[in-house]
Amino acid sequence: MNDPTGHAPGGGRPITRYDLDRRELAELLEGQPGYRLDQLWQGLYRDLADPERITTLPAELRQNLAEILPAALSLDTRSVGDDGQTIKWLWKLAGGALVETVLMHYEERSTVCVSTQVGCAMGCGFCATGQMGFDRHLSTGEIVEQVVRAQLDAGERRVSNVVFMGMGEPLANYDRTWAAVERIHGDLGLSARHLTISTVGLVPGIRRLAEETLPVNLAVSLHAADDELRDELVPINRRWPLAELALACSEHISRTGRRLSFEWALIHDTNDRPIDAERLAAYARPLGAHINLIPLNPTPGWPTRGSTPDRVRAFADELRALGSNVTVRRTRGTEIDAACGQLRADRVASPVAAPVRRTAPA
Length: 362
Ligand code: SAH
Ligand code: SF4
Prior knowledge:
Number of helices: 11
Mean pLDDT: 91
CATH superfamily of the largest domain: Aldolase class I
CATH architecture of the largest domain: Alpha-Beta Barrel
CATH class of the largest domain: Alpha Beta
Strand content: 15-25%
Low-confidence stretches: 3-7, 348-362
Bound molecules: S-adenosyl-L-homocysteine, iron/sulfur cluster
Shape: elongated
Number of strands: 12
Structural class: alpha/beta
Order of helices and strands: HHHEEEEEHEHEHEHEHHEHEHE
């Protein structure tokens, strides 16, 4: 077998079992009969097995592979909410960093929300991940293995959808995220139309996505449709303001034919006024974007609360009256701090054993 250390994901960390694509697995097996590649690939991507358990391979090879291809994620904590329908994992990575994954079962599908970075550098003040600051990028193997572990947990239920909406900004870790998309599609066999990348609006990344041959869904976390407010809520808007963002989104739609959606976390008396609905509707209309509303979830570092249920309903009605396509997203996993924007991966902020509701600081 070849020494695969040339493929190390950076930072001196070891490669892990889902870091290598089929060609690289073939290189690893050089000197072995050709069919061993199929057996290894089947074991990893069809049976989701540990290399030592791929019994079609000879014992010695299995042993070697187990050493060369370690798992990326080791379980720290698994928590369950929504009567068993939402599962959150806190994983420990090589080097000790912690990261979270959330699996949500619905009647008609199961969706896993994966992280792409430890922390995030984008600095959105209302987001618990942003409040942590940036630690490091995840490798492709660390991203793909989150889907594998979720599927292993789901058993008979098939994990059909992946949203890149966990910790981190996927387009700030473009190459590794895209390699993960290709592996999730090509090797794990999920349909591209069931994969959604969520971005805060990194225009060059959206443009690159538009050029990819595999069309995935794009979700843009908008939260404000005027530059003054968006500059405040989403600091990266100062670099790529709304007009530029709209151009990149329009390019993505025309190249990929995929649906665009805007995420809008409703913040009390901040972006939930009738004028905000008007601006949002006007911004979304030419792009034919779908609007997902979600009341802001509480995080320790942000004082303003989410909009009241009445205001959420009224805001959705205002948008509909203006001709927008709107969904009010049901919040999942609040009691295990697994809801949007609540992922921060430290044990202090994620009281798993005895969930307690935090109150916002004054
Ligand atoms: N960085 C990417 C993906 C991860 S954030 C992005 O920003 O799109 C996932 C989603 O959670 C984004 O839509 C983000 O705006 C939203 N979010 C962040 N903090 C939130 C909060 N406190 N309440 C509700 N949604 C939040
Ligand atoms: Fe990063 Fe997204 Fe959180 Fe903003 S909302 S800080 S981009 S993870």
